[in-house]
Design a protein that fits this description.
Helices cover 45% and strands 9% of the residues. It has 344 residues and is mainly alpha-helical. The longest helix is centred in the N-terminal third of the chain and has 31 residues.
Length: 344
């Protein structure tokens, strides 16, 4: 009888050890084997979801067999309270352990939106509204009240105040959060450009430098011309000459208008740099870093004029006579009758 009891006890111990080994192996395999994926999938962790709900979803997707495995692991490792809501990319070869730690680190899928140099704030708002992964601003938010909505107490007009760049964010981010980041980035870049400006620069404030940079941005997209274009505008400002730049007039035209009529050139308003001296009242676009630096440190030149060659580059001139000849050559096809010059 005693031998039978010892035998049963031994069997129980063996079975218990075998069960413990099986549970341990099952636990490890569930955590470390690659998830059953043929391609990248997305997993959305909602705010407030806990390990129990996550584990159940993993089982439903066939990634693990037992929900308790993930719950036990998450609590033993202390990751349960650190899980961060968001959208996660689940790639072939990733294990349940890998995914849990990715969620604890907050390695959410990064979406992007780009504001190109020279865009207007209206275009930036439109891009944010159309992005499928952003929470769009209410329709009541527009250029007229954007500073108030964003809490920019020292900004009267939002144009120019957002740095052109590519901004990354997680799915479900508020679009206004992206705009606040773009604004903060612009403040940093503008502050640096203001510190770097030439000592005898004619602009009197960082805001005027921002306005000048926006004009430079709209006048040329060529990196090798920015400083020279800036030099022309600075020379004209120092001499009290009107800037006479088309982009300031185009800024107040209907979207899509690319050419100005004579009536528009003659119509006086704050953005008409043909009829009014100095800078327009606000920026006319979002200037990039290079335009800001060009505005702050323009090329030392005697040029007072430039005209498009029609290939994206410009001809620069020191005198009006040279400029007139360049206009006839590049803009009028050699016809100088506009200036009373008989064609040869």
């Amino acid at each position: 009888m005693k031998r039978i009891s010892l035998g049963l006890l031994g069997l129980v111990v063996v079975l218990a050890l075998a069960a413990a080994w099986w549970l341990s192996e099952h636990y490890r395999v569930q955590l470390d084997r690659p998830l059953a994926l043929e391609s990248v999938e997305r997993f959305q962790l909602e705010s407030g979801q806990g390990l129990r709900q996550i584990s159940t979803t993993f089982v439903e997707r066939g990634w693990i067999d037992s929900a308790w495995v993930l719950e036990v692991y998450g609590r033993r490792q202390g990751v349960a309270p650190r899980l961060q809501a968001g959208e996660y990319a689940v790639t072939p070869g990733m294990s349940a352990r890998d995914l849990v730690h990715a969620m604890a680190r907050g390695d959410v899928v990064q979406h992007r939106v780009t504001f190109p140099e020279g865009w207007t704030v209206r275009q930036a708002l439109s891009a944010l509204r159309q992005h499928p992964e952003l929470i769009a601003p209410p329709e009541s938010v527009g250029v007229h009240n954007l500073p108030e909505i964003l809490g920019l107490d020292d900004v009267e007009h939002p144009e120019g105040w957002f740095l052109p760049d590519t901004y990354f964010f997680g799915s479900g981010t508020d679009a206004l959060t992206v705009l606040r980041r773009a604004h903060q980035s612009m403040r940093i870049q503008l502050e640096q450009a203001w510190k770097d400006r030439l000592e005898d620069h004619p602009v009197e404030s960082p805001y005027e430098l921002l306005i000048l940079a926006s004009i430079i941005e709209r006048e040329t997209g060529r990196g090798d011309e920015r400083e020279r274009v800036a030099g022309v505008f600075v020379n004209r400002l120092q001499r009290g000459m009107r800037l006479q730049t088309d982009p300031t007039l185009l800024y107040v035209q209907d979207p899509g208008v690319q050419r100005l009529t004579r009536d528009e050139l003659d119509r006086d308003h704050p953005y008409n740099t043909y009829t009014r001296a100095g800078l327009p009242p606000t920026p006319i676009a979002l200037p990039g870093r290079a335009a800001l630096q060009a505005a702050a440190r323009p090329e030392d030149t005697n040029d007072l004029f430039f005209v498009s060659r029609g290939d994206g580059s410009h001809h620069f001139s020191e005198t009006y006579r040279e400029h007139r000849e360049a206009v006839i050559r590049y803009q009028l096809g050699g016809d100088g009758s506009r200036y009373g010059i008989r064609n040869r």
